[in-house]
Each structure stands twice: as C-alpha cells, then as structure tokens.
Amino acid sequence: MSEDDGGAGATTTTAETTAVMGKRKHKVIIVGAGMAGLSSANHLAKNGCTDFLILEGRNRVGGRIVSIDMGSQKIELGANWIHGVLGNPMFELAMQHGLISIINIPKPHKVVAATEDGKQVPFQILQEIYEAYVCFLRRCEEYFLCQYLPPPDIHSVGEHINLEVELYLNNVECQKEKHLRKLIFDCLLKRETCITGCHSMDEIDLLELGSYTELQGGNIVLPSGYSSILKPLCDNLPKENILVSCPVRRIHWKRKAALRGGASAAMGTSATDTILEEDEDDGNESDDSDRTVTEAPTCGDEEAQGATGADEQKQTEAARIIKNSTANVVVECENGSVYEADHVICTLPLGVLKEHGETLFVPALPQYKIESIDSLLFGTVDKIFLEYDRPFLNATISEIMLLWEHEDKADGDGTVEQEEPDEQWLKENWYKKIYSFSKVSDTLLLGWISGREAEYMETLPYELVAERCTDILRQFLKDPFVPKPKRCVCTSWRKQPFSCGSYTAIAVGASQDDIDNIAQPLYSSPHQSKPSVMFAGEHTHANFYSTVHGAYLSGRTAAQILLTPDSPQEIVMESDSSDLSSWIQGIALD
C-alpha cells in the first residue's frame, strides 16, 4: 500500500486539466500541498489573496497526512496525534470543526513486556525502569534549557542515556535482574528512535534535544482520524488553485535583475552576466540526476524512445518561456509546463531537499543552506498494520513490548555497535527493531519500526512481513496458535519520492541554527521588499520541527510575510491565541 493511495480529501485539478485551462502567471506559487502548503494557501485566501497556485507532485493533498480504509475503520499511515493542546493551532482547528469528541471515555490501557522466551516482566519492574528512563531523558533536555556542559566525550542523547543506565544498573547486584532491566531500557531507546525519527539515539545531538518545545495537554487522537483535518483546510480554497500530479522539476529564482538591463546597469551589475547564470541550463539536458521526485518508476527503453520527441519539444518550449520571462520566479514542472510568479513558497520536505536540493534551484542554493540541509537528520519511521478475522490478544492488554536479546553486533559490554549494518545483518535481524505491538482495535495491531531496519522492511513483500510478525507474536506470547493476519499494510516513507523519509531531527553537530538557515528566504536582488522564494514545512520551525503544527505555523508565517504591506517599519507578524510561542516572544519586557 503506497502512502499515495489514500483519499485526496479535496476536489483538486490534475496537470492535464490545467494544461487546457492554462493560466500561467500567478502572484504566488506554493510548491507542495502538505500541511505547510495548505496553511499558506488558507492564510492568503482568508486575507483576500486568491491569485496563487499550489503545485503538488502526488495525486492527492495532505503530504504526510494520509489515511486508508482497513476493515471497518480508517487507519492513519502518516501523522497520528495532535501533539499538545495549549497553543496548538491543529487542536483549535479540530475543535472549531467538531473533529474532537468532548466526551472522551478512556480505553483500558495495560502494557505488558515480554522476553523472547515468552516470560512477562512484573509490572512494578516495568514501571520502575520507565520512570528512571523518563528521568534520564529529562536530564538530556536540561543541557539545552540550562546551558550545562556535558561529561567529556558525550555528544549524543544515546551516549548520555547509556551512561546513566550503566550507573543505574551498577546498583543492581543480581546479574539476571540487571540483564532484564537492561533489556527494558533498550526497548525504550528503540521506542525513542520512532518518536524522534532516527536510526539510533546516538545520532541525536545532546545539547539540542531540549530545543523541541513540547506543548501541554498530551497526545490527542481525532476519532475520525488525523486526515479529517484536511477537509476544512481545503474547503476554503478554490479547487482550480490546487494542481495535483504535477511534480516540480526546477525553480528559477534569480531573475528580476537579469532581465532589466537598465536597472542592472544603474546598480553597477552586468545583466549579461546574470542571464548567463540562467543560460547555463538550456532545458535540454538528458541526464536524469537532476530530476526532482517523480511519481512512477522511469519507463522502459522502448517507451522512453517513443516519448523522446515530445519531451524534447516540451523542454524546448519550456526553455523558451524561461528565457523570455520577466517574472521574479519561474517554476518548471516535470510534465513540461511552466508557471511564472512574483513569489514561491517552497514546502518540499527536508528529505526531498536532501535528495534534490542541489539541482532543484537555478541558480543553486547558497552554500550555507546546502550545508544546513546536509547537517540535519531526516530519518525513517514506518508502521506495520496487522488486521485479523477475530480478536486473540487478552481483552485487557493494549500493548505488548518486545524485549529482544542483544543483537549479534554487540561489543563486550552488551551495547550495540553503531557501525553501518550490512545487508546480510539486516536480512537476519531487521524485525528486532520492532519494539512493540499495540492495539488499534480488537482485530487490528500496529507495530513501529525505525532507521535502516525500516528502510530494509520497505523492500520486503507484505506477506513476508506478516509471516515474520506472526512468528514474533507466537514467540513472545508463548502461543503457537496466534493466527496469521488476513491483511498486512506497511508504510514506505523512505521509498516515497515526495517525502524521502519521515520527519526532522537534530543530528550530532547540527543545531537550531540549521533550521533557521533553511527557513531563510531568498531575494533575487538586494532592493526587493519581499523575497522571491520562501521556505516552509516542519523542518523550518526551530521549536516545533517534526510536527504538523510546526508545518502549519511555518506555512502561515510565510504567507503573512507576503501579506504585510511594504513599509520601512519592522515586519510585525500576526499573533493570535493559536500560536502561544510567538505571542510570548512578542511580549517586550521593559
């Protein structure tokens, strides 16, 4: 099941339809119809600006928010929870449109932890280790919040927590008890990789962990699924303003000075030199290395030869439009269509920028941006859904934690070495990264997996994943009669060309500055009052990276910059109750 098979959530226009309708010039072009793109478009529309066009590569809107029907219910392949209530615009939007149930009857929640030989851990031990782990994690966050200096040679969250675990376990005399507690800590660290979006917590910078701001109120699940929040956002937008199945190939952004020879001469710059920067690309290159994300695999040789003539004709026409355009920005699409705009809001995920950022922009992005894109982490987190004909798990149990023994690639003290796992090792051990199975309903289980093991799982057929999960459940539940699922669905966020991963984390050596660098807008000339290209998405919010509300707020901020009237005064961002952080930042202390 592809993440692109979910419902679109809105009436949209395809590239083919628009080719017929054909309006080429717009005030604003928004690249990407995920939460950041939809937020930008909504903010523009609500403020009377409808001269915008959203270009989306997928055949649907929503980006990393997507659901499918499984049995009698919808399952979320992407975003799952509204993270926090206080100051969360997603919570307010959901409340406003009646998507949150006020009467919330809590389901019984009982977590059990089992070892590979099927023995269940006493609950008090599980609780003891969980409380200690939370304490260790909070201490890691304090380095950012309190500007402490870490111990020597400790640079990552994983290293720090393992040090704390080692000191903690030194107080346990019985080797068997010590080993059991170590397995629980290992399981919780695997869980943390899924929350954070990485392969190992050894990848996450210790000094930056606390930069993520957690909103109060816990995680909220929408009864109708997270994807139900897309409809109210799309209802405000004219359907002809959203163009799906239209991947962007290039964004030509440094144009204005190039085509106004007189102005260029007056500013002491050479128009010819600037035009040459554009002319280096004649639109007829055959090398595929510079192509941005495409929906389907490339066609076979015969089809490719048949399409060559038409493609060349389209590219020649595109090159002509690009060369003659007087617009600030020209956006060139994979299907050969070209759009012109005063401004572009680029909401492509960090994973796509990592894969294609160096060739997507003409001229290339400034070096500081490329370096920051490289520095940040964009990990893979996948879900495994298992649907059954009948319930088989004890009705009171909501989750079973899997306490795997240490992998073969462990060193003398039992900790796993963080060298790159090879293909053979992944083949034999990938499933040991699944840290638990939780109940979505009586007949639907959900497993989580992260990192390189998740990427390996994406290459496997669903049947093989289902078989392996059945073996795991039989082993840990000590029950050879656990049924095989009637259906298995796995996500493949790394393999998806329009995401290339799941969400952003701050890697060792990176910082909030890298997020700010990516968010910095691009100006075509120093005399512009408004930027030519702005960036939005969860990877551009320094406090709420990795979240939907971070994407939403970044999209709204980009739109607000364009809406703010030109004046020599400082730009004042709009501030409302739904963005508590910017409201607090706006308070001036005398």
Automatic annotation (TrEMBL):
Q: Residues in domain Amine oxidase? A: 35-254, 321-562
Co-factor(s): FAD
Name any GO cellular component annotation: cytoplasm
Q: Which GO terms describe its molecular function?
A: polyamine oxidase activity
Q: Which compartment or compartments is the protein found in? A: Cytoplasm
Q: Where is the composition biased (Acidic residues)?
A: 275-288
| Key word Cytoplasm present | yes
Database matches in InterPro entries: Amino_oxidase, FAD/NAD-bd_sf, Flavin_monoamine_oxidase
**Top-rank lineage group of the source organism:** Eukaryota
Please provide the record's keywords in A-Z order.
Answer: Cytoplasm, FAD, Flavoprotein, Oxidoreductase
Q: Region entry Disordered: which residue ranges? A: 264-315
Give the family from UniProt: Belongs to the flavin monoamine oxidase family.
The name on file for this protein is Amine oxidase domain-containing protein
Specify the taxonomic lineage. Answer: Eukaryota, Metazoa, Ecdysozoa, Arthropoda, Hexapoda
